[in-house]
Amino acid sequence: MSNLLNNGKFVKNPVHEGVFAKFFYSGADGGLISNQETIIVPGFEIAPHTHENSTEFFYCAAGEGEFLDAAEWRPIKKGDAFRAPQGVTHALRNTGRELLVLLCTFSPAIR
Question: What is the extent of the structural domain holding 32?
Answer without folding.
Answer: 11-107
